[in-house]
């Protein structure tokens, strides 16, 4: 078990009872998940913290916290590159993997919720979450694309993929089509600025508001600095 794995294990155990699936589940995760700076155990921990906070706000809907924790754990186990033509299948593949690992530890009903939460969480998947656990996992992961970490992860992934920071001749795509496969800054209007309106829980929307405003402040500052050049 790696240091990062142990830290995430501790994060789960601090929030739910020590369940039988945790150790074998994280062992399987260690063997399979290809980590990068945007999708690693630190990301899982932040999503878990977001999810627990949302679940507390949505307590009237009686969310199953263990189902949520299991779904968060495996939601990025199969992580295809952002520019892959199969990118939209990553969450479905992750859900299938999780079901195989977790089947001995959960009832069919709870396993179905885990599968749905993983399969529907991805922005690019085209699926819509229906059960409260899936909605919470979706919102918790989307919060990671907003605020300071959203900015950091955007530019990290863009750097790995060799994207330019912006189109120097038209930074805010006022005279061209958005192209976030080519320019990191285009990812803000193409996706990130839309997430606040696509949160699926009341608590998630409330948490997204401040982080959305932070993105707007960042973009205002970029605009000022570009104008000064």
Automatic annotation (TrEMBL):
SMART domains (UniProt xref): HDc
SUPFAM superfamilies per UniProt: HD-domain/PDEase-like
Species this protein is from: Microvenator marinus
Pfam family for this entry, one: HD
Name of protein: HD domain-containing protein
Source organism superkingdom: Bacteria
HD/PDEase domain mapped to chain residues: 36-155
PANTHER family xref list: HD_PDEASE DOMAIN-CONTAINING PROTEIN (PTHR33594:SF1), SUPERFAMILY HYDROLASE, PUTATIVE (AFU_ORTHOLOGUE AFUA_1G03035)-RELATED (PTHR33594)
Transmembrane domains' residue ranges: none
């Amino acid at each position: 078990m790696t240091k990062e794995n142990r830290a995430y294990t501790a994060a789960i155990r601090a929030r739910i009872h020590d369940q039988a699936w945790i150790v074998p589940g994280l062992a399987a995760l260690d063997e399979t998940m290809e980590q990068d700076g945007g999708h690693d155990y630190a990301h899982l921990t932040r999503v878990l913290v977001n999810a627990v906070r949302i679940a507390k706000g949505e307590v009237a809907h009686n969310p199953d916290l263990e189902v949520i924790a299991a779904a968060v754990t495996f939601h990025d186990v199969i992580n295809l590159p952002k520019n892959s033509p199969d990118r939209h299948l990553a969450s479905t593949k992750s859900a299938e993997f999780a079901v195989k690992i977790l089947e001995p530890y959960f009832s069919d009903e709870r396993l179905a919720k885990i599968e749905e939460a993983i399969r529907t969480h991805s922005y690019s998947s085209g699926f819509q979450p229906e059960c409260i656990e899936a909605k919470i996992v979706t919102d918790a992961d989307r919060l990671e694309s907003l605020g300071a970490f959203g900015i950091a992860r955007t530019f990290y992934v863009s750097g790995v993929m060799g994207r330019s920071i912006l189109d120097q001749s038209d930074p805010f795509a006022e005279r061209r089509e958005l192209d976030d496969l080519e320019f990191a800054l285009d990812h803000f209007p193409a996706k990130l600025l839309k997430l606040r309106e696509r949160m699926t829980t009341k608590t998630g929307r409330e948490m997204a508001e401040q982080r959305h405003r932070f993105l707007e402040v960042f973009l205002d500052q970029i605009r000022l600095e570009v104008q000064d050049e």
